Amino acid sequence: MSAEDLEKYETEMELKLYREYRDVVGLFTYVIETDRRFYLTNDYEMQVHSVQGEVFFEVSMADAWVWDMYRPARFVKQVRVLTFKDVNIEELNRSELDLTQDSGFGSSGESGG
Predict the structure, then answer these.
(1) Nearest to 33 by CA among 84, 100, 71, 88
(2) How many Å apart are CA 38 and CA 80, to the nearest integer?
């Protein structure tokens, strides 16, 4: 497989992943971003642990969707993440979830400014 073929494959996979995200995002309440993954979920629990002066985070999620183009199945029943890095948790704004409007992806129109 040439480098060009690999790049084309990855571009197609990313587009497929974005389309899947667009289809499922409305089913979820929270976005959770760690240093390695991006998750959508309706239920999570986060605990902060401190062991010998080192702080780390434990995030547990149920019935989540994970942004990872290399996973054969992106819906997962249970997820447990342990990380020493930042964890960002945001509640989704339902009015911003209409991805059918022009979001700037693939549009050739002018942007305001």
Answers:
(1) 88
(2) 13
In the structure encoding, which two tokens stand for residue 94, read together? 């339902």
pTM here is 0.75
DSSP letter, residue 85: S
CA distance linking residue 77 with residue 89, whole number of Å: 19
Task: Specify the amino acid at residue 71.
Answer: R
Chain mean position to CA 33: 7
Measure CA of the first residue to CA of the last residue in the chain; give whole Å: 43
pLDDT tens-place string over residues 86-98: 999 999 987 655 5
Inter-residue contact 65 to 18 (CB < 8 Å): no
* Percent with pLDDT over 90 in the chain: 70
- Predicted local confidence at residue 110, as pLDDT: 42
